[in-house]
Design goal:
Elements lengths: L2 E7 L3 H13 L5 E4 L11 E4 L2 E4 L6 E2 L3 H8 L7 E5 L2 E4 L4 E3 L11 H12 L13 H9 L1 H15 L20 H10 L11 E5 L5 H9 L5 E2 L4 E5 L4 E4 L4 E9 L8 E3 L3 H8 L3 E9 L9 E3 L9 E3 L11 E6 L22 E9 L5 H14 L2 E3 L1 H4 L6 H16 L1
Parallel strand pairs: 1-2, 1-13, 2-10, 7-16, 11-14, 13-20
Antiparallel strand pairs: 3-4, 5-9, 6-9, 7-8, 11-12, 12-13, 15-18, 15-19, 16-17, 17-18
Length: about 425
C-alpha cells in the first residue's frame, strides 16, 4: 500500500491531462491514475466500427479557440495528424434542415415561416424588457420567443435531458450563442447569419483515427503509472485512502477525482451533510448507436427536436472522418426503448448490433447545483480531495475546456 503524492481517479481527459502535467512539471512528485475501464479516454473513447472509428461517448471535437490547450495536446498527437473543419451543424425541421443556431438561420426557411418566427421573437420577454425568469423553461420562452421555444428548444432539450427540464436553472445559459432580435432581422434581410457563433465554429478531428486516439497516446505516456480495471468504491477523507472493488487500497497526500461523485458507493471520515450534497447531484446518460446507412447531407451533426423520434442528435461521421460510412445516433437512456428498431437497427455490415450505453454523459444544471457543488468542492478541498473536470466539478465542459481546467489546477499545485 504505497503512498503517492497524487492519486488521480479516472483516466478521461481531465485525469490524463493533470497526470501528464504533473509528470512534466513536478518530477519529484509521485502519482498514480486509477481507471475502471480496460482503456483510457472516458467519454472520448473510440471503437472501430465498419472499418472506421466511432466515438462511443458521443460527438467530441477539438476546438481551435484555445491555442495553449492545443499546443499541449499536439505534443502527444502532432497537428499534422489532424484535419480542420468549418462547423456545419444543422437542425432537422422535418421537411427541411436549417443551420444552427436556430435564430441566426431563420432566413433559410420559407418566407411565410420567417415572418411568424420574427413576430414571436419581437414580443419575447427579453425584447420587452421583462424581468429575467429563474426557471429554464420560462427563460427559453423569455429569451427566444414562444415559437422557437415550442418548436425547437424545449422539445430538443426535453429529449436530451430525459424529461428533467423543470429541475434546470438558468445560470448556465449565458454560454449559448447570443443572437438579438435586430441580428435575427438582419439575417433574414441579408440572407446570412449574424450574432455570436456557437462553440466549435472551427474544429480539429484526427485524419486517420477517432478522437479517442489522442487520449490513448496520453495514457501511453504515463506507462505503468496508470492502472486499469480499478473501480473506486470507497473514498476515505481522514486517511486519504481509496478502496477499489477488488479490495486494493491506495493512499495519497492529495486525491484528484475526475469521476462522478455519485459513482462512489461510500465516503468515510466525512460529515453526513457531505453525503447529502453528493446525493443532490443529478446527471443523464446516453446510448450511442451505429447505423450503417448513408445520409445525404454535408452536415457534421444534426439536432433532432421531433418528439416522435427517440434520438436527439445525429453524427454524420463520413463528413469529418475520412473514408468512413454510416452515422450514429445519440439518445438519452430514458428514451432508448422508443427507438424504431426497424429503421435504426444499430448493426454493422455483418449484422452485429452496435450500441454503446453511457451511464454518465451530461451533468444536470439543476437549480440548486451552484450552491451544492460549491459547498461540496470546498469541503473536499479542505481535506485534500480536489474535484476536476466534467464530473469532478459537475460542469458540462467540453474536452478542450477540461484540459484547460487541468492546466489551471497545475498552476495552483505548483504555487
Amino acid at each position: 500500500m504505497e503512498k503517492v503524492t497524487y492519486l488521480i481517479l479516472g483516466a478521461g481527459p481531465a485525469g490524463l491531462s493533470i497526470a501528464n502535467l504533473i509528470k512534466r512539471n513536478c518530477p519529484e512528485a509521485s502519482f498514480l491514475v486509477l481507471e475502471k475501464e480496460r482503456e483510457a479516454g472516458g467519454l472520448c473513447r473510440s471503437a472501430m466500427v465498419d472499418g472506421s472509428p466511432l466515438d462511443i461517448g458521443g460527438g467530441h471535437f477539438l476546438d481551435v479557440r484555445r491555442p495553449k490547450v492545443n499546443e499541449f495536446l499536439f505534443s502527444f498527437m502532432p497537428e499534422e495528424e489532424w484535419n480542420v473543419y468549418e462547423r456545419d451543424s444543422r437542425i432537422d425541421m422535418g421537411t427541411y434542415e436549417i443551420g444552427h443556431p436556430f435564430e441566426a438561420n431563420i432566413w433559410q426557411m420559407p418566407e411565410e415561416e420567417q415572418v411568424q418566427y420574427l413576430k414571436s421573437i419581437a414580443v419575447a420577454g427579453c425584447n420587452l424588457e421583462q424581468p429575467k425568469p429563474e426557471k429554464f423553461v420560462d427563460w427559453i420562452i423569455w429569451k427566444l420567443g414562444k415559437k422557437i421555444a415550442m418548436e425547437y428548444m424545449l422539445p430538443y432539450n426535453e429529449k436530451m435531458f430525459g424529461g428533467e427540464l423543470e429541475k434546470l436553472g438558468t445560470y448556465w445559459l449565458d454560454k449559448l450563442p447570443n443572437v438579438s432580435f435586430e441580428e435575427t432581422l438582419l439575417s433574414c434581410l441579408n440572407r446570412k447569419p449574424y450574432g455570436t457563433q456557437p462553440g466549435h465554429a472551427r474544429f480539429y478531428y484526427p485524419k486517420k483515427y477517432g478522437y479517442g486516439e489522442l487520449w490513448l497516446r496520453m495514457a501511453k505516456a504515463l506507462g505503468d503509472q496508470i492502472l486499469y480495471h480499478q473501480i473506486v468504491t470507497e473514498l476515505d477523507f481522514a486517511e486519504k485512502k481509496v478502496t477499489c472493488a477488488d479490495g486494493s487500497q491506495y493512499f495519497a497526500e492529495k486525491i484528484i477525482t475526475t469521476i462522478p461523485w455519485t459513482s462512489i458507493q461510500s465516503y468515510v471520515g466525512c460529515e453526513e451533510s457531505f453525503c447529502e450534497l453528493v446525493g443532490k447531484l443529478k446527471h443523464t446518460g446516453t446510448e450511442i448507436r451505429y447505423v450503417a446507412n448513408t445520409l445525404e447531407t454535408k452536415a457534421h451533426w444534426i439536432y433532432v427536436p421531433d418528439a416522435n423520434k427517440a434520438h436527439h442528435r445525429i453524427l454524420v461521421r463520413r463528413n469529418f472522418c475520412d473514408g468512413s460510412k454510416g452515422y450514429w445516433l445519440e439518445t438519452n437512456l430514458n428514451r432508448v426503448g422508443l427507438i424504431n428498431e426497424e429503421e435504426f437497427a444499430g448493426k454493422d455490415a455483418n449484422g452485429e448490433r452496435l450500441a454503446f450505453p453511457n451511464e454518465y454523459t451530461y451533468p444536470l444544471n439543476t437549480i440548486d447545483k451552484p450552491i451544492v457543488i460549491k459547498e461540496l468542492l470546498s469541503y473536499a478541498k479542505e481535506r485534500g480531495v480536489i474535484g476536476l473536470g466534467r464530473w469532478g466539478e459537475h460542469e458540462h465542459y467540453n474536452s478542450d475546456r477540461t484540459v484547460e481546467r487541468a492546466m489551471e489546477l497545475m498552476e495552483e499545485l505548483r504555487a
